[in-house]
């Protein structure tokens, strides 16, 4: 099981992986707990963040994927990870009950698992509970997930928190990864500054003035 020391350990580019669970085009249309435009931007932002820091990802869909009624994964995910195979599930609601998905998670060799899923109360909560039971430290990206109503979403998050999951958001995940990456190799972190500033300017509440000032200083 996850110890207190494990639980308090920060996210790093070496200990974290991201699972995108059923972030599908048609499913997303039913989400009302968060603005859809914001939700899609946050999911794409998390995908690009994972790519930027070299985090392994596992992708899955339900209902037959792109050929089924729930649609394919959002384009922002597949654009970021075109080389990653998608585990298409049919009839298995808990992704961790699919041997292919469970094997892909294990293959990441990471114990800090960041989850983004649609919906929080259905396709995300079940594998999250299974991961916690298996000793993983689960982080739920609350602004890159959603449910049919805010009340439903809140109830699912409360259940997950009671089970030991950590609620977080995309901007906070970035800050934690960037901080630990800088502590490990400051020069490598500095070399990513242009990419980081573009990401901050695009996917977080950071005002565009930050990006403009950075560009001006680099000119």
From TrEMBL:
Residues annotated as transmembrane: none
Q: Which domain of life is it from?
A: Bacteria
**Would you tell me the protein name for this molecule?**
Isochorismatase family protein
Q: What is the lineage of its organism?
A: Bacteria, Pseudomonadati, Pseudomonadota, Alphaproteobacteria, Sphingomonadales
Q: Taking every annotated instance into account, which residue ranges of this chain make up the domain Isochorismatase-like?
A: 17-171
SUPFAM superfamilies (UniProt xref): Isochorismatase-like hydrolases (SSF52499)
């Amino acid at each position: 099981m996850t110890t207190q020391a494990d639980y308090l350990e920060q996210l790093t580019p070496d200990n974290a992986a991201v699972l995108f669970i059923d972030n599908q085009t048609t499913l997303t249309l039913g989400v009302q707990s968060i603005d859809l435009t914001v939700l899609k931007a946050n999911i794409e932002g998390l995908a690009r963040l994972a790519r930027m820091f070299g985090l392994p990802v596992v992708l899955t869909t339900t209902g037959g994927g792109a050929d089924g009624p729930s649609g394919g994964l959002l384009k922002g995910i597949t654009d970021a990870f075109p080389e990653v195979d998608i585990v298409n599930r049919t009839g298995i609601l808990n992704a961790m009950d699919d041997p292919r998905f469970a094997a892909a998670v294990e293959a990441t060799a990471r114990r800090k698992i960041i989850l983004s899923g649609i919906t929080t109360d259905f396709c995300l909560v079940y594998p999250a509970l299974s991961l916690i039971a298996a000793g993983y430290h689960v982080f739920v990206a609350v602004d890159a997930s959603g449910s049919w109503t805010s009340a439903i979403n809140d109830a699912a998050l409360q259940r997950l928190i009671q089970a030991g999951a950590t609620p977080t958001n995309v901007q906070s995940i970035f800050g934690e990864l960037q901080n630990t990456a800088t502590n490990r190799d400051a020069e490598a972190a500095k070399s990513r500054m242009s990419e980081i500033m573009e990401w901050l300017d695009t996917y977080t509440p950071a005002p565009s003035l930050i990006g403009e000032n950075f560009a001006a200083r680099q000119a």
